[in-house]
Design brief:
The chain is an alpha/beta fold. α1 runs antiparallel to α3 (about 140-190), α8 (about 340-360) crosses α9 and α15 crosses α19. The chain binds 6-O-phosphono-beta-D-fructofuranose.
Length: about 725
Amino acid sequence: MRVTFRLVVSIVLAAAAVSAGWTFFSARAERARLIDELDHRGSLLAEGLREAAEPLAKRADAKALERIAGRFGGRERLRGVSLHRPDGTAVAATSGLPPTAPPPREGRPFDCGLLDDGSLHRCTAPLEESPGFIAVFHGAAHVEAGVREVWRRGFMRLLTQVLLMSAITLWIVHLDVLAPIERTVEWMRLLRAGEDPGPAPPQGSVLGPLAREATKLARSLETARAAAEEEARLRHAGHALWTPERLKEHTKDRLRGKPMIVVANREPYLHVRKDGAVTVLRPASGLVAGVEPILKACGGTWVAHGAGDADRETVDSSDRVRVPPEEPRYSLRRVWLTREQEEGYYYGFANEGLWPLCHIAHARPQFREQDWKQYHAVNRLFADAVLTEIEGVEEPCVLIQDYHFALLPRMIKEARPDARVSLFWHIPWPNPEAFGICPWQREILDGMLGADVVGFHIQYHCNNFLETVDRALECRIDWERFAVRRGGHATLVKPYPISVALEENAGPPPSKEELLRSIGARGTLLVLGVDRLDYTKGILERFLAVERFLEDNPAYVGRFVFVELGAPSRTTIPRYRDFVEEVKREALRINARFDTKDTRGWRPIVLAVGHHERTEVARWYRVADACVVTSLHDGMNLVAKEYVASDREEPGTLILSRFTGASRELRDALIVNPYDVERVAAALRQAIEMEPEERRRRWESMREAVREHNIYRWGARLVDDLSRARPAGAAST
Ligand code: F6P
């Protein structure tokens, strides 16, 4: 209240000062204007009368003077005329005038001015032929009255302004400051008391930034409290669940405080220009979803290709930027690639060569000498960046991600034998015959074996890798320990099934109807697919299954809707571009088949092609009745785990391809062969019609699997094995 009072008083004082100043100058100008007007009139009349009145001065003929003045009697405000000797005494004057008047000042043809009390105005002019002067008098009371009127109007204006401004100020202060503060205070009070505070206060007012910060603070407190409660619960239950806090402490201990360096081609945050402004984009990437929580928990540096069109504008002089943008926890170091490098290394060798080579999904790998050279050159570029990052750090710890960097482990080790290096391969590894068609298989394997630890999602891929090494290189395979020994160096080859963090206490779920409406979809039974638009994901097979399901179960026409959130990916590669078109065509064909006059406005398949923010995808997971993952071949597939990890009010059902790594852990999903359209269609029906009890049992078992084998456990196991490695010259740990 005191603030409001001070604000209103300040406004009143400021308005009064401005208004008083303005009125003062207006009054002064009005006074000068009115006197000027009298001066003008008086001097004109004195001039006009002077000749006629001059003879009367000699005769001191007041009567005649009265007559002459009478002729001007109609003139406004004229009070009279008098004739004077040089000393000022009147020789003749019309009645009611003062007996004397001061003679005109030297050098002025007319001397005009107000008399002392301001009620009369006098203008004098010297006579021409005889000594003395003539004086003309006008009433001047209107001058002060005019000035008073200006002040009166000024005051009224001030009063109106002050009233209006105070009312508006009070209204705005109440609406935009006091009410939001009251609401925010109440919201935070409930939060502090551990009660349900409802939705966070609106962010749009002037207090928006403050409310945003307060909301974040409150949410952090809430998360910390939940984490502490969870820890206490687990300690009580004798469980050993991995949490961000536990991983942080564990990593600090195992790496003896050394910073963690992660290398991955894809950056977790891209800065891009949109409508002239720089915005942040989180890519659709299982790798990012999996690895980022580790860096958020432990800190460190992520070295990646700077691929956003505004990336260069947002880094410092060392090409670094702190992320996440809303709450920085670690550094992102960007490496710049030329168009040719990106073409050869990323699109060419990595995605047209290694990607189809490792995925058995019926795409022929393309191996081009030029792409291989670029792949080599870019691996060298990243090696230089990493070496700068680890300069001066003894026994640094470098976690390399994926098939983009098969040569990097060796390059780093050659320069820094004391470094502890791991390489995690996020995609499958095929059998030795399949891999053997790669013209540079020996160089790739040699590069990978520079690492102390090579990880895959499942044991099967480790076995394939070890067999490939066994056939291609001179080395000793220790099948008991799953290690490769070569030239005095050992590489441990182990499965580390990647995962996600369980989402808990996410607040009230969104409305399914609203989400569906937002993309123009209709239906009550929502089945979801979330993928990069990649030919390995089995999206066309999934569409065929939806078609078959509706053919076999017409009762669901109009009620069932399949939403595919598809993110375009690697679209420079013709195979991917064609695939997007194929997916769109297939959705159109199936939708057209079911478009009858009874189903107007309903489509069985709603394909939302575009970038979908993680927060948006998370909202869909929370309301979808079932999620379908039908990859033809996949290292792990984190979409399956993200769906299971989502905080839902009711359990959902997961339909999962047996060719994903995830199917080894999520045994209570409905496991399908995606090539078997009939079986997937039957699984759709089974998912929808499942008894609630069975649905809950399966859901809880899958959630338990993700809870226990979460991403923090993945990080901890990798760090553990890496810390046990014995790089050249390393102190024993
Ligand atoms: O699945 C392999 C993988 O590299 C993931 O690790 C990553 O999430 C995904 O492909 C995304 O690919 P890109 O970075 O080429 O868009």
